[in-house]
Design goal:
The protein is globular and about 55 Å long. It has a domain of about 55 residues: Arc Repressor Mutant, subunit A. By secondary structure, it is an alpha+beta fold. Strands 1, 2, 3, 4, 5 and 6 form a 6-stranded antiparallel beta sheet that branches. It has 11 helices and 6 strands. The N terminus is likely disordered.
């Protein structure tokens, strides 16, 4: 976790206030000094912004849950009318995190890759994003775990780190389902899909993870599993392999796994054949695992 005291120009930059447009040339643009703490848990990124000021940062497309913990904090592109009370949360989707914080304000942003959301849920979030809701239910549980992660200063083992990332992802998905899936059938389908995805993530390292085993653990038929994933771009089997590849990519880019060989990482994510892993990785990410790791750790 890092704490950054970022200084800024004396006057607000209108590009930052706009929250988008061609002005996003620098990775971070500030218009007033503020303090920021950032860390990752698995594939989830957490940013705590406090003090007085704002920032804008471009990165990978993500779904961002922004929790307002103190007065006058907001997504720059999700304005709140008047003085918004603390204890609310907003959702934004895109490659830019743009926030404003007035003196005494505090925000906690949780960013998760868009690949962690199903296509139907992502469509629901796209159509309903904006505005603020009270922090309650699954959103409250997600926030409490996120705050605990931010306050945790002692180093964590890679396995604990990934487990926390998976828990944050599951709670974030449940919060989004609770907020955006208004029809009963919609809510049930997304909740079941979230349970299935959570089970898969907990068991990616097991090379014997099969659709038969998932059906047994979920107490349902294989046909029902396929039906739950029928409106996705990937079949359930493809989803399992793509998540293994994403987990491998994440581990290859992290310093705490630098002492492990590429084969160890691949086998630790459920692959049982090094050649199959290398070919699949190159097809998905456009370069061999070794080249990807070298570039990621150098950057």
């Amino acid at each position: 976790m890092s704490a950054l005291n970022l200084q800024a120009p004396a006057a607000p930059d209108p590009r930052v206030l706009a929250g988008n447009g061609p002005g996003w040339s620098a990775p971070v643009e500030m218009f007033v000094a503020c303090e920021r703490q950032s860390l990752t848990r698995g594939t989830v990124r957490l940013d705590r912004i406090s003090g007085a000021g704002g920032l804008a940062e471009s990165g990978e497309p993500a779904c961002r849950l922004l929790f307002q913990l103190g007065p006058q904090g907001e997504l720059a592109d999700v304005p709140a009318p008047g003085d918004a009370a603390s204890g609310s949360w907003s959702v934004g989707i895109g490659s830019t995190l743009a926030v404003r914080v007035q003196r005494g304000g505090e925000l906690l942003a949780l960013s998760l890759p868009l690949t962690n959301l199903s296509r139907p849920l992502l469509a629901q979030v796209h159509s309903g994003a904006g505005g603020k809701e009270p922090i309650a239910g699954a959103a409250r549980m997600c926030l409490e775990l996120a705050r605990s992660c931010v306050l945790q200063s002692a180093p964590l083992s890679p396995s604990v780190d990934e487990a926390l990332g998976n828990a944050l992802t599951e709670l974030a998905r449940l919060a989004l389902i609770e907020r955006f899936c208004t029809r009963r059938g919609e809510t049930m389908r997304e909740t079941v899909r979230t349970r299935i995805q959570a089970f898969i993530h907990r068991n990616l390292a097991d090379p014997e993870l099969t659709i038969d085993r998932i059906a047994e653990q979920m107490h349902c038929t294989k046909r029902y599993l396929h039906k739950i994933f029928s409106d996705e771009a990937e079949t359930l089997s493809q989803y399992i392999w793509s998540q293994r590849l994403e987990q491998c990519r994440d581990r290859l880019s992290r310093a705490e796994f630098a002492d492990r060989s590429i084969t160890e990482i691949a086998f630790g994510c459920g692959f049982s054949n090094a050649a199959h892993f290398s070919h699949s990785f190159r097809c998905r990410f456009g370069q061999p695992p070794r080249a990807y790791r070298r570039a990621a750790l150098a950057g």
